[in-house]
Amino acid sequence: MCSVWRILGRGALRDIVLVCLAVGVIGLSYGAIAVASGFPLWVPVLLGVLVVAASSEFLFIGIVAAGGSPIAALFAGLLINARHLPFGLAVPEVIGSGWRRYIGTHLMNDETVVFALAQQDLPRKRAAYWLCGLGILVCWPVGACLGGMAGALLDDTDALGLDAMFPAVILALILPALRDRKTRSAALAGSALALATTPLLPVGLPVLLALLGAAFAIERTREKEGTR
Amino acid sequence: MNSTPLNNTPLLVATMLALAAGTYAFRLAGPLLRSKVTFSPAVEKLMERVAVVLLTALVVTTALFEAREWAGFARPAGVLVGGVLAWRKAPFLVVVLGAATGAAVLRLLGVP
Q1: How far is B73 from chain A (nearest CA, A)?
Q2: Which residues share a beta bridge with B70?
Q3: Which range, A28-42, A140-154, B16-30, B33-47, is most confident?
């Protein structure tokens, strides 16, 4: 663990702790909402430990609480989590091999992937991914548990602006990667496609459609290289 | 009273476990595939780009929408505050708190 401290340095360490705490606070509202919707406390906590993907858990809880079938909630949750497949293609060396792969895989989420991508070299990428992942694995279900016990007192974290934190965290961490022109044009095309389809398609699908934006950019670069 | 999904515990637990297993399978598929097949450096670079594209789309959609509904003005404005702060190379803590404060202040002023 000491080497993780040394590799990352104080700045990155503080950022990761901050994100884990923010995840814990969102966990408070998640637990509170789940219990206020009629679920026993163990439901959000168990999902928090086993799934560790906030948006799919909110969606699952929301659909079932609204009277929807748990099967529909399952498919909606899986759809929103399908983006982890391309994430895994992007950061396999960060996770490691052997037994580490099977544990590290469970730590894959938006925050850990974006922290890993934001670091310069492999040791730092690894340290950031694992530290952030383990932190979230603890903070998310603990937050859900505390929120569930505190009950409906905490269900309006929007008043504190916490809903703006998650997109801002990811945005801050991808900004350096967006300086690359090709990445930026692919990201813009993908985002435009996702935004245009969000009101029309099931939750989770528009973000996957953003992949088509990336595909567009590849074709163009390949043609360019071919004419050289 | 009918048995609602909320008190049909076996079905609820089965779907929760299936969600966990399916999510783990999605997460494992990438690293497994990459350990079996070797890709050219260009393709590896492309996969990193794809992850950034997905994350950007996630930022934009979660900033502007709550599920499929328009999220109001306060949230995207808060995210924009955070984005500008990050762009001006403000410390991460300032970025995150700036986004939350921006949205919270707007809501306090009655902006949805």
Answers
A1: 11
A2: B65
A3: B16-30
Tell me how close the Cα of A1 comes to any Cα of chain B, in angstroms: 23
DSSP calls for chain A: -HHHHHHHHHHHHHHHHHHHHHHHHHHHHHHHHHHHTT--THHHHHHHHHT--HHHHHHHHHHHHTT--HHHHHHHHHHHHTTHHHHHHHSHHHH-STHHHHHHGGG-SHHHHHHHHHSSSHHHHHHHHHHHHHHHHHHHHHHHHHHHHHGGGGS-GGGGTGGGHHHHHHHHHHTTGGGSHHHHHHHHHHHHHHHHHTTTS-TTHHHHHHHHHHHHHHHHHHHHHHH-
Identify residue B85 by its one-letter amino acid code.
L
Query: Which chain B residue's Cα is nearest to A79?
Result: B23
pLDDT digits (tens, 9 = 90+) for A21-72: 999 988 998 998 899 888 999 999 999 999 999 999 999 999 999 888 999 9
Instruction: Select from B49, B65, B85 the Cβ nearest to the Cβ of A186.
Output: B49
The two three-digit tokens of residue B32, written as one number: 């497994």
Q: Which amino acid is at A4?
A: V
- Per-residue tokens: B35: 């350990």
Per-residue model confidence as pLDDT tens digits over B78-96: 999 999 999 999 999 999 9
Residue B42 makes CB contacts below 8 A (sequence gap 6+) with: none
Query: Whose structure tokens read 């799934």?
Result: A51
Whether B68 contacts chain A with CB within 8 A: yes
A187 neighbors B61 (Cβ within 8 angstroms): no
Taking the C-alpha atoms of residue B82 and residue B62, their distance in angstroms, rounded to an integer, is 14
pTM: 0.90
Angle at A36 between CA A33 and CA A42, to 5 degrees: 80
DSSP string covering A11-32:
HHHHHHHHHHHHHHHHHHHHHH
What is the three-class DSSP state of B110? coil
If we measure between CA atoms, which residue out of B39, B105, B13 comes closest to residue A70?
B13
Which tokens in the block code for residue A86? Answer: 């391309």
By residue count, chain A amounts to: 228
Give dist(CA A134, CA A95) in Å, integer. Answer: 12
Kindly tell me the number of DSSP H helices and DSSP E strands found in chain B.
4, 2
